[in-house]
Amino acid sequence: MNLAFVESPVQLLNVLEWVHTQGGDDPAATTVVVLPPVDPMSRGQLRRMAELARDEGIAVRWQEARGESGAPLKALRALAGLVRRADHIVIGDPFSRYVQLLLTLVRADRLTVVDDGTATMEFVAQLARGERLTRWHRRGRTGPRELVLAPVTATARRRFTPTARHTVEVFTAMPVEAPPGIAVTPNTFAWTRARFGPPSIGRGADLVGTSLVETGVVDPVPYQEAVAALARTHGATRYFAHRRESAEKLHALEAATGLEIVRPDLPLELIARRGPIGRTIVSFPSTVVHTLPLALAGTGVNVAVCDIAPEWLRATASPRAQGFLSGVTETARGVQRLSSVAYQG
């Protein structure tokens, strides 16, 4: 039995892509456990993705593990037997402390990590360098919680290290160089292209939002000015919001730019593939500059990426932020590079 753990809509999409690449494997051999976050937009997208997974013949289990007091331990007890019986574990977020906790119960000798966006690039790089697993936008401080969970993280890291009896696969659309012994399987978005589209294409452009403000990386003022400048330059009329963008920020963007704010009910790869979509899609450095060219291959849609200027970064941003974001842009294939929009602070 394949047992997958997902915490975001994109992770669930990539599990569907992984199942599709298995060829003759029976989709019913895979069970997906959804560990939903608390924000409503993510939960809504996850429910829609769960419907698509069930349509493919995949079993889906919705397991609350956040929010209420005691929910994490209750979920752990409910899932323990399922985890121990699985032959193959598939996870979407190797940085998730809850998933790392579940990995301490795993007996399976096969482990697959599917994309959780650009975080996969940092995950593989940290494995190769032998570093502690830390999200790129965190400043790396070690607090009481990290100290308590250190043994859990260490055990998880061993799970990500292949041995003679334990295989590790990374299923990814990102450009990665995995350490020796880890198999890398390309994600070409074959399932997405087979199930959706091709889209109808308009003449104008669409902008893609990012949660870099919400994660404390980019200052909101230059971000809003950059969005306004890109909309004017490219004739954009719509702004596809990231599921983590705050309502306050989106209201301010709408008022300042006149853009139609769209909150997608599915990951953008599926929204774009279904259409209608602009002739050009403009994004800041993010997962979609790697995934949209694959999902929209052969459609004639142009994907463009606008760099993040150093002066946009907040003083509290991680020292790794600029280098990581530049790497996301520089390694993207089949996209148009745009210069940073000037900000007069």
Question: What does this entry show, briefly?
Answer:
This protein has about 350 residues and is an alpha/beta fold.
Your description of this structure?
This protein is an alpha/beta fold. Helices cover 39% and strands 17% of the residues. The protein has 12 helices and 13 strands. The protein has helices spanning 9-21, 40-55, 71-85, 97-103, 119-129, 144-159, 190-195, 220-234, 247-257, 268-274, 288-295, 321-330; strands at 2-6, 30-34, 59-62, 88-91, 110-114, 167-172, 183-186, 205-208, 236-240, 260-262, 280-283, 302-306, 336-338. Strand 1 (2-6), helix 1 (9-21) and strand 2 (30-34) form a beta-alpha-beta unit. The longest helix has 16 residues, at 40-55. It starts with a strand and ends in a 7-residue tail after the last strand.
Radius of gyration: 20 Å
Class inferred from helices and paired strands: alpha/beta
Number of strands: 13
Mean pLDDT figure: 89
- Helicity level, as a percent range? 25-40%
The number of helices is 12
Strand order of the largest sheet: 3-2-1-4-5-6-7
How do the SSEs run, as a string of H and E? EHEHEHEHEHHEEHEHEHEHEHEHE
How would you characterize the largest beta sheet?
7 strands, parallel
Proportion of residues in β-strands:
15-25%
Keywords:
12 helices, 13 strands, six-stranded parallel sheet, seven-stranded parallel sheet, alpha/beta, single chain, 345 residues
Question: What's the layout of helices and strands?
Answer:
Blueprint: E1 2-6, H1 9-21, E2 30-34, H2 40-55, E3 59-62, H3 71-85, E4 88-91, H4 97-103, E5 110-114, H5 119-129, H6 144-159, E6 167-172, E7 183-186, H7 190-195, E8 205-208, H8 220-234, E9 236-240, H9 247-257, E10 260-262, H10 268-274, E11 280-283, H11 288-295, E12 302-306, H12 321-330, E13 336-338
Parallel strand pairs: 1-2, 1-4, 2-3, 4-5, 5-6, 6-7, 8-9, 8-11, 9-10, 11-12, 12-13
